[in-house]
Amino acid sequence: MPIHEEHLIRPENLKTHEDLVIDGIDVSGHWSTFIESRVVTDYNEALEEEIAALPGGEFIHRCWQCGSCTNSCTVNAINPDFNPRYWIYLIRVGMESELLRDKDIIWQCVSCNKCTYACPRDVVPEGVMKATAHWLELKGHTPKSPSMLFDEEFSEQVIETGKIEEGRIIRGFFKRTGQPLMQDWLVEMAKRLVAKLPVTLLVKMGLASVLRPRTSGWSGARDAIQEYVDEKQAEQRKALRLDELVEIAKQEVKPGQQAAAE
Ligand code: SF4
Ligand code: SF4
Q1: pLDDT number for residue 257
Q2: Cα–ligand 1 centroid distance for 80 (angstroms)
Q3: Nearest 5°: phi and psi at 25?
Q4: Any residues with Cβ below 6 Å from ligand 2, and which?
Q5: How confident is the model over 208-231, as a mean pLDDT?
Q6: Residue 254 phi/psi, 5° resolution?
Q7: Are residues 25 and 51 in the same domain?
Q8: Are both 78 and 100 inside the same structural domain?
Q9: DSSP letter string, 118-151
Q10: FRET label pair with 107: which of 18, 69, 146, 180, CA 20 to 30 Å apart?
Q11: From the CB of residue 173, how many other CB atoms can be counted at a distance below 10 Å?
């Protein structure tokens, strides 16, 4: 299906002849602007299945390209290159290299879900954006985003202890993102907490931060949740062929490089 959205045409694919006469008619300049055909040879036929295997991407197959998601999108209103409808199209036809050209803006989805409410086919485009950002990270096309690192820290702590301890989560998040613990806004927040909260509560918070309390009898639940998480991650790795790709990458290492690495 052709796409006639001018901003989707890459500038390098627009060709203009400065001096051109066709059948005696001067069509130089603007009148001789042509769109160069694209030739795509590196389709990923499994791309839709890979996105559908990640949380949020399950209903991508329902899309009928009406564009309501993009029309209602908060981010598209300020950046026309942010185009959920177009990315869903690329995923469904397997144009991975074209999708990768926008890899640095797909994460910008703010999860407002306006697209989800506008979608007539219950595709849940917000979920598809999340799944696509996750896919980019799992495939190594983009580094882990701060929100992904926060989710990992949060989930690991909850699974381990059955409790949420904000101080530990903030410390763990800062460590993962390479941020210093002493930050002006954090110091200011701590000062205000000390000024406003009862002493007993502050002592409890301090102890919780040091002693790392756990929900009693949590070990059974922890093991069951961890088993479920491992199972889901294994399914995702299989759907995205991650282990297979690692093996291919290893085999592609030249003998000289391999010897140097050993
Ligand atoms: S959830 Fe994301 S894709 Fe959907 S409208 Fe909001 S910013 Fe756009
Ligand atoms: S609104 Fe739904 S059906 Fe329409 S293009 Fe977006 S995802 Fe597809």
Answers
A1: 61
A2: 13
A3: -105, 130
A4: 63-69, 85, 88, 118-121, 123, 125
A5: 90
A6: -65, 150
A7: no
A8: yes
A9: H-TT---HHHHHHHHHHHHHHTTSSPPPHHHHHH
A10: 180
A11: 17
**E strand residue ranges, 17-175:** 21-22, 25-26, 34-35
* Structure tokens belonging to residue 175: 């460590």
257 token code pair: 């490089």
Is the model's pLDDT at 129 over the cut of 70?
Answer: yes
From 58, 65, 76, 126, mutation site for ligand 2 pocket: most ligand atoms within 8 A of C-beta: 65
End position of a domain, from candidates 138, 159, 177: 138
CA-based R_g, the chain, Å: 25
Both structure tokens of 67:
């564009």
pLDDT of residue 6: 67
Nearest CA to 83 out of 66, 62, 104, 69 is that of 69
- Residues 150, 188, single domain; the answer is yes
Provide the percentage of residues in the chain whose pLDDT is more than 70: 93
Q: Give the confidence band of 161 by pLDDT, cuts at 50, 70, 90.
A: very high
